[in-house]
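quick one, 87 residues, struct below
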Amino acid sequence: MEAAGVALGAIPIALKLCQSYQTLSEKVETFRKYSHEIQRLDQTIRVKEQLFRNAVVRILESITRDPARAESLLLNSDELRKLGRTC
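---
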């Protein structure tokens, strides 16, 4: 009789463990999904950043007619502000 009581007492514990495992499994799956999405968005942002930088360099090259100066202006915001005041 005592073994039956232990077995019956273990059923709610086993059910709770299954529910907890399912909840944890769902959270891990959500994390994996969002982790992948964040990596994808990060890559997209890096590509857009490079495209923007290239466009800025082309604009600065068209203003200065000097690729080296355009790169220098992009790296030195004070020099870029001075150029903006003279245009």
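The chain has one domain: 2-86.
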